[in-house]
Design brief:
The complex is a heterodimer of chains A (118) and B (190).
Chain A lengths: L3 H15 L6 H14 L4 H7 L7 H4 L2 H20 L5 H9 L9 H12 L1
Chain B lengths: L3 H14 L3 H23 L2 H18 L10 H23 L15 H6 L1 H13 L2 H11 L5 H8 L3 H19 L11
Helix pairs in contact in B: 1-2, 2-3, 2-4, 3-4, 4-6, 4-7, 4-8, 6-9, 7-9, 8-9
The chains are: A mainly alpha (118), B mainly alpha (190).
Chain lengths: 118, 190
């Protein structure tokens, strides 16, 4: 058997549940406006909207780190041209047929010969 | 999380945080009726309920970028925020308006008797909730005005189910005592 005092209370709760109006359109509009005002920027859109930064020619090539490799390769090529290791000329002959060595700085060739003779 | 409604709320909140403009509108349409309803049922005051609903949603917008879907459901989080904001509001009323001097709502569409038995009852219930300790008021309103189960309330209030049962039981006894001297006015037999 239910407690009459609690039955009264249950009637009050039922009245409280029954009398709920819908939120007004003005409230919905205010809350939507808050939501838009407080919304974080879209990450993709934020990047796209940003003005492009000035990019230099060197940056396009990868900057100094990339160019240092190119410079090292160039120096190695020059060195191999001046003082090719033993066997390189034989390999070149095998691959490309007859080869001819041309000396641009005769004195330098003599100096290298002395170095290799010890 | 297997509740599709909860998944949708969480997905919309993530979309909102990622800048999806439509997500703010969708979340408003989905959540505000429930948020406003909870506020109104506790406070029985349109203007105050609107303020609470707006404040609760502002807190949701602000927390969106840091939202962790695994920690809580959006609906559970909002129940908690609204319950806390409403009990703060009720505590303010308790300081400023004695229960016996609380104004009754006037609705010209209802007869005098109907007003007594509808408007006055709901207003009296809200004023009586203001007399309760905060946690009791929250547990009672979530159980009997929002229709939440005890395990749901336990999750919302971060309590054990046993603690919720105890709070609801004590809260209802306290409400009955607070309303005892208004029984005739509210249309209940002495």
């Amino acid at each position: 058997m239910s407690d009459p005092k609690m039955t009264d209370l249950d009637d009050l709760f039922a009245a409280g549940r029954a009398e709920t109006p819908a939120p007004s359109e003005a409230l919905m509009a205010r809350i939507r406006a808050d939501g838009q005002a407080l919304q974080p920027e879209a990450q993709g859109l934020a990047v796209a909207a940003r003005a492009p930064e000035k990019v230099s020619f060197w940056d396009m090539l990868g900057g100094w780190p990339a160019l240092s490799g190119v410079a090292a390769a160039g120096v190695a090529g020059v060195w191999l041209g001046i003082a090719p290791p033993a066997g390189i000329e034989d390999i070149a002959s095998d691959m490309f047929g007859n080869t001819a060595s041309v000396s641009f700085v005769a004195e330098y060739d003599d100096f290298l010969g002395e170095l290799s003779d010890g | 999380m297997t509740d599709p409604e909860a998944q949708t709320d969480a997905a919309l909140l993530v979309a909102y945080a990622n800048g999806d403009r439509a997500a703010a509108q969708d979340l408003t349409a989905r959540l505000v009726p429930r948020v406003f309803g909870q506020s109104f049922r506790m406070l029985q005051d349109q203007a105050e309920a609107e303020d609470i609903a707006q404040e609760a949603m502002i807190r949701l917008w602000k927390i969106a970028p840091d939202w962790e879907p695994d920690r809580a459901k959006v609906s559970t989080w909002l129940y908690r925020v609204v319950a806390n904001l409403c009990t703060d509001k009720l505590r303010g009323r308790k300081r400023h308006t004695p229960l016996d001097q609380a104004p009754d709502p006037q609705d010209p569409a209802l007869s005098a008797v109907d007003q007594l038995q509808a408007g006055a009852r709901t207003r009296a219930l809200s004023e009586a909730l203001a007399q309760l300790p905060e946690r009791q008021a929250q547990a009672v309103s979530l159980r009997h005005l929002e229709g939440c189960s005890n395990p749901e309330i336990a999750e919302i209030m971060d309590l054990s189910v046993e603690a919720v049962e105890s709070l609801v039981s004590r809260g209802k006894r306290a409400l009955t005592a607070a309303l005892a001297h208004r029984k005739a006015e509210l249309g209940f037999e002495e």
